[in-house]
Amino acid sequence: MATLNTRSMIFTLYGDYIRHYGGEIWIGSLIKLLKEFGHNEQSVRAAISRMYKQGWVRSRKEGNRSYYFLSEIGKDRMEEAAERIFKLKPNIWDGKWRMLIYSIPEEKRHIRDELRRELIWSGFGSLANGVWISPNDLTKQVNTLIEKYEMGPFVHYFISTYGGPNENETFVSTCWNLDEINEKYANFIVQYEKKLTSDMKAIDAGEKTDAECFVEKTKLVHEFRKFLFIDPGLPECLLPKRWFGNKAQTIFSDYYKLLAGPATRFFERIIREGDGSIRRVTNDDVFHHPLMMERQ
């Protein structure tokens, strides 16, 4: 089994599991969970240390045990990611464009690449050098970035309408390669439509363990989470007529629900074995995601 990036997998576990249990986990339990994916103790400790230095998590000591929990920045990022991953329908567009214009001075040039990644992750598209746009209301994200990078004096943020001379669709094609994104959704559908059918039969026949469901569900979320870095989440009226994102979302949702029960049992067992107790902060038998509520 190919080993997935340790740090990235920890983000996935925090987003899909740990945040529903107070956002905190003992490092020993985290090591045991990630062992299921081929990660060793050294790689887990190195990855969580890096996340700590980057401000995503904080830690506390209890005896000789170290517990790691999400920082406020980490909580905000996980909530935003979950809202986008489990979104059932595209946004309804108000017809306005959000435009962020900035000019980073030389003394802050070290933040340029990181800022660019943050903007793409949030759903902005690059119209020109230092000019980013989105049809979605990303005002909260913009304010967070301004505060995080202390770039208030160097940025302007507009909410406006496009006056032509081209159509909005032409405007979109300048900023995003929707054909490439659509192709990635099509590939996801081909791969996971078959896996959904196969695992549905295996679970019905009692041939798939809780641990195997945990691995498959975590890998599923990990794989679908990649679309956050490429799909800006455009409103439906700005998407191509033949858009595979909706079908991919449906397959993801159905597969997620199929695996959720046994995967959760395994996660709770590992936590209970390592810590003696668990503290779930949601009341549902399976996690409190919009897609779960919709389909129950």
Describe, in plain words, how this protein is organized in 3D.
This protein has 296 residues and is an alpha+beta fold. The protein has eleven helices and seven strands. It has helices at 6-16, 27-35, 41-53, 72-85, 112-122, 139-149, 168-175, 178-204, 210-225, 245-275, 290-295; strands at residues 24-26, 57-62, 65-70, 97-102, 125-128, 131-134, 155-160. The strands form two sheets. A four-stranded antiparallel beta sheet has the order 5-6-4-7. A three-stranded antiparallel beta sheet has the order 1-3-2. Strand 2 and strand 3 (65-70) form a beta hairpin. Helix 8 (178-204) crosses helix 10 (245-275). The longest helix is centred in the C-terminal third of the chain and has 31 residues, at 245-275. The chain is flat and about 60 Å long. 27% of the residues are buried.
Provide key terms for this protein.
single chain, 296 residues, alpha+beta, 3-stranded antiparallel β-sheet, 11 helices, flat, disordered C terminus
Q: Give the low-pLDDT segments.
A: 283-296
Task: Return the structural class.
Answer: alpha+beta
Number of helices: 11
Write down the overall geometry. flat
Query: Helical content, roughly?
Result: 40-55%
- Gyration radius (Cα, Å) is 21 Å
How is the main sheet built?
4 strands, antiparallel
Neighbour order of strands in the largest sheet: 5-6-4-7
As an assembly, this protein is single chain
**Count the strands?**
7
N- to C-terminal distance: 33 Å
The succession of helices and strands, N to C, reads HEHHEEHEHEEHEHHHHH
Mean pLDDT figure: 87
Approximately what portion of the residues adopt beta-strand conformation? 5-15%
